[in-house]
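Q: what does this look like with adenosine-5'-diphosphate bound?
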Amino acid sequence: MTTSATTRPTGGGPSARYVLAIDQGTTSTRSIVFDQAGRLVAVRQHEHHQFFPQPGWVEHDAAEIWRNLRRLVPATLADAGIVAEQVAAVGIANQRETTVVWNRRTGEPIHRAIVWQDTRTAALMDSLGADPRAVEVVRRCGLPMAAYFSASRLRWLLENVPGARRRAEDGELLFGTMETWLIWNLTGGPDGGVHVTDVTNASRDMLMNIRTLQWDPQLLDFFDIPAAVLPEIRPSLEVYGLCRELVPGAPIAAALGDQQAALFGQTCFDAGDAKCTYGTGSFLLLNTGSELVNSSHGLIPTVAYQLAGEPPTYALEGSIAVTGSLVQWLRDGLGLISSAPEIETLARTVTDNGGCYVVPAFAGLFAPHWRGEARGVIAGLTSYVNKGHLARAVLEATGWQTREVIDAMNADSGLPIRALRVDGGMTANNLLMQFVADILDTPVVRPMMAETVSLGAAYAAGLSVGFWPDLASLRRNWHRAAQWTPSMDAALREREYENWKFAVTRTFGWVRDGSGTRPG
Ligand SMILES: Nc1ncnc2c1ncn2[C@@H]1O[C@H](COP(=O)(O)OP(=O)(O)O)[C@@H](O)[C@H]1O
Ligand SMILES: O=P(O)(O)OC[C@H](O)CO
């Protein structure tokens, strides 16, 4: 980091003993105040609307999210009993790949933000994937040709909002993921707002060269994106500007995609350190150090973080689209449970899955398969199977998807994962966490501080301004709350895994009308 406590541009003096983290997630936005010991002092959370205008389409109102934040931050500071001058730095973590375009003069979004789960551009990605240039595109951005990433959404907006392409070319419009949108608004919006993205978020756009960390003209040309609309790519730990809104004078000192923030909050700073965040979807990231590891097994090389003035630290990521949302489906879609935690009670009414496997390819499969045309199956159904077996199979689906990603990581990186650090809502489920330890044959550990995404954003911002001296001081704040030790019979584990893999093959090729994407 380049900015020390003494050279910090502003944001209070010795009384600035707190860091504010903003976690702009898929379902809600959180604002959290941390103290120097990494303790949570105050937290506020606000859900925003989910818009589903057509099957497979998911949108957010970026203006609503900004309005929510305007209410959340003052309330959180009041709860903590502090004023803006006591905030040493602000750090942002955000849902990644969600795409927003707005008018630089008025600050109005030209359309609702298109969310990372949205599959409207699957057919577009299919046709782009057939282009002979696609192989070089994949090599340059490091990502598979999938609708998950931002480029095809930005192109969709430019092509489908009347006049958008011309206005973008004329420099009237700005593009960003959620951190870009929030930083621009916090630093003044139309009145001098800073238009930047951090390198971890940019690494998910498909427009950045994963080696040079710059926008790549060949990628812009391939996706037909005018450069005028793009933010400046900056390190993740750097002072981007000072807040003019909400926390006047406080430096915005870090931004990270939320999964990278969780890796940071779990203090996975060494090559070989890995974490998995079990939420709506699940995201396993392995720190690969200064080395960019290309995957030949369906993982994504991504930027883990970059300190100002230093080379980046890379990670390999296994992104799983459906885990906690499968539990929600059991609750809301089937009505078999009335709350998510109840799944554990139901699953414990039986001792095994009764031969049943649920593969939740609701919108295709992400890592390591990347099959947009796959759809979900319940395999092995017999009249013996009851709702307890189904509940167990639903939980096991999260475990097996983790195992597939870990196997791919081992094959790609050669870095053996000695222990998996976990966080997220599903880690409250002991049966699931024991199952994960069993089928990975690896200890699974959960830290005391469960809010790893916000903590990562706070750590990064605090480190950036010298509020914390170094990575070692952060590591000392990590304390284990729970550990699950593997105890499953090896032969049983491998037999069950074979069954799972066979069930997965049953999902392939379901969508046959070209609306699914099969990335290269
Ligand atoms: N005890 C539990 N057992 C299994 N799943 C759970 C449990 N508690 C919460 N979940 C699941 O975890 C998800 C919420 O976790 P969270 O980390 O808040 O997700 P996100 O940050 O993606 O919104 C939901 O999808 C919910 O179904
Ligand atoms: O907001 P979350 O926690 O669901 O995370 C979403 C991921 O960043 C999508 O890539």
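The chain has two domains: 2-249, 267-520. The radius of gyration is 22 Å.
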